[in-house]
Amino acid sequence: MPPKRTEKIPLSLSRRERQIVEILYRAGRATAAEIHEQMTDAPTYTTVRGLLRVLEQKGHVAHEEDGVRYVYFPVAPKGATGASVLAHVVGTFFGGSPSQAMAALLGSTKSLSEEEIERLSRIVREAKKERKA
Questions:
Q1: 14: closest CA among 44, 52, 45, 46?
Q2: What is the dihedral of CA 89, 90, 95, 97, to 10 degrees?
Q3: Is the dihedral of CA 29, 35, 78, 111 positive or negative?
Q4: What is the pLDDT of residues 79-133, one digit of tens each?
Q5: Is residue 13 classed exposed, middle or buried when 0-12, 13-18 and 19+ CB atoms within 10 A define those classes?
Q6: Which sequence spans correspond to the domains of the chain?
Q7: How many other CB atoms sit within 10 Å of the CB of residue 34?
Q8: Are 94 and 100 in contact (CB under 8 A)?
Q9: CATH for 1-93 (3.30.930.10, 3.40.50.2300, 1.10.10.10, 3.40.50.720)
């Protein structure tokens, strides 16, 4: 069972580390060999094992022993990691402006359901309230 993590995960992942974490979120659990197979333009198997050790030291993944194999799994909830990655994207590509990021996202979306529009409106209202407080 993975250890519980509730704090925000800092974005400290290289491109390859992010690729490994994405594979683990999709698979749930995987060995280094299985991860290596799924990587695009994969580095060596030894490099993948080294990256898994680094990810474990950083607290992003953990492993369980299954005989002689290590089976890896993500530690942080997917939403927490996603929020961290999104914050990085907003900072890098939108000058730290959530409104510019939201405009780009909404501009690329074909249509929003009434539920989605209401949820977004509620988030904006709550942000306004927090700002006044």
A1: 52
A2: 170
A3: negative
A4: 777 777 788 788 889 999 988 888 888 877 778 888 988 998 898 899 888 888 7
A5: buried
A6: 1-93, 96-132
A7: 16
A8: yes
A9: 1.10.10.10
